[in-house]
């Protein structure tokens, strides 16, 4: 994470100084790695105002009208993909303005301090606020922004599992690749022809095993293997090459600060369009092959096969079984069983609930009674003519007797025994 603290020239300075400031700020920003999180914050002495058509770097809660420095800041944000986070949250006026100046008869409130962040992490910002009343000798307010950065390391530094182990045949190539399908048929026919004498004398089970082994060997030589864990729908060499190229360009864009980013992004977009076009072609070829298979079936089988291909297999519902092993189909009964199950786990039925004492007794004889725990039930001063030490008294409570009756009847008190035991 990188934080750039900036202070821009105010409106009283010449325009050359403001241009020089933003040039230096752009140079500093470009030196930082693009993969890191970079925040630019400080006093920009600029008013962005309300967003204009197509502007995404400023929110709907910006104050004032855009001035000269505001145009320079807007150009800087649009060029580097930054957003003013404290303009995207609806707050009171006193929590939006960041600068105050008192004048004769009135006060001036402006929003000239901003916290700029990358537009890609704006969705991680949960709040932005300007705090007034800070104990500092400054006419500026404290501006804060809250970001939920818990998932940023997981998103940016994902660990990729190596896919060296290849255990599955790339059968999808037989659907859309005509050359691979022809090669597979040629290899299988040649293998069966070479083993024709052995197949003619073998038993049915041995014959089936040898044919299956020849089919597997022919597919292994013609279409090859695909990764054991494949996110792609098709195992196509051209797609694999294009995906690798766009990944390398993405790393070059984010890590190489001296590269021509605009040209790299243009090249990567062209590769992404080529990937999308290739995926569309492969999907159409797979659909054509599936349509050919359905058309080759009988009239009655076409309907069932087409319906099975159009509608996905529904996900089976998770049913609950009772103690006898029967399925519980009623929703209310299922909810009751789940509630009783968790109640048996977290609720102890043997524990008695401590009930509040509904009766109160006033202690009138301190010499033979317990001292009042609550001062509101204590004896009046006229009935306590002398001071007495109760440290040596003890009280034994019976579980079947209430607290008030025990205090009334027992002459010995121990305050520690008043705590109920569980």
From TrEMBL:
Chain segments carrying region Disordered: 365-391
Superkingdom as given in the UniProt entry: Eukaryota
Biased composition (Polar residues): 365-375
Protein name: Endonuclease/exonuclease/phosphatase domain-containing protein
Taxonomic source organism: Phytophthora fragariae
């Amino acid at each position: 994470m990188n934080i750039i603290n900036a202070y821009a020239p105010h409106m009283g300075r010449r325009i050359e100084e403001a241009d020089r400031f933003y040039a230096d700020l752009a140079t500093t920003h470009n030196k930082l790695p693009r993969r890191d999180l970079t925040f630019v914050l400080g006093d920009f002495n600029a008013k962005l105002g309300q967003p204009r058509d197509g502007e995404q770097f400023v929110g709907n809660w910006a104050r004032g009208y855009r001035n000269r420095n505001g145009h320079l800041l807007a150009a800087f944000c649009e060029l580097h993909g930054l957003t003013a986070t404290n303009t995207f949250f609806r707050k009171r006026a006193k929590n939006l303005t960041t600068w105050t100046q008192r004048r004769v008869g009135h006060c001036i409130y402006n929003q000239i301090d901003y916290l700029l962040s990358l537009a890609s992490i704006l969705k991680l910002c949960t709040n932005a606020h300007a705090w007034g009343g800070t104990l500092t000798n400054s006419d500026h307010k404290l501006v804060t922004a809250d970001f939920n950065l818990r998932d940023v390391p997981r998103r940016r530094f994902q660990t990729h599992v190596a896919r060296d182990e290849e255990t599955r045949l790339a059968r999808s190539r037989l659907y859309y690749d005509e050359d691979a399908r022809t090669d597979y048929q040629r290899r299988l026919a040649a293998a069966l022809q070479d083993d024709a004498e052995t197949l003619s004398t073998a038993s049915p089970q041995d014959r089936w095993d040898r044919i299956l082994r020849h089919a597997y060997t022919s597919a292994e030589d013609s279409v090859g293997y695909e990764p054991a864990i494949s996110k792609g729908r098709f195992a196509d060499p051209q797609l694999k090459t294009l995906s690798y190229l766009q990944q390398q360009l993405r790393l070059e864009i984010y890590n190489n600060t001296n590269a021509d980013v605009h040209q790299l992004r243009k090249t990567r977009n062209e590769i992404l369009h080529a990937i999308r076009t290739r995926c569309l072609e492969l999907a159409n070829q797979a659909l054509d092959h599936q349509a050919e298979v359905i058309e080759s079936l009988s009239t009655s089988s076409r309907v069932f096969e087409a319906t099975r291909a159009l509608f996905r297999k529904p996900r089976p519902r998770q049913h609950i079984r009772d103690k006898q092993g029967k399925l519980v189909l009623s929703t209310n009964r299922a909810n009751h069983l789940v509630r009783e199950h968790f109640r048996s786990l977290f609720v102890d039925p043997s524990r008695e609930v401590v009930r509040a004492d509904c009766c109160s007794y006033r202690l009138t004889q301190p010499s033979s009674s317990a001292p009042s725990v609550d001062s509101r039930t204590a004896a009046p001063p006229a009935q306590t003519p002398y001071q007495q030490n109760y440290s040596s008294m003890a009280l034994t409570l019976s579980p079947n007797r209430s607290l008030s009756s025990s205090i009334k009847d027992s002459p010995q008190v121990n305050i520690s025994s008043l705590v109920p035991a569980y």
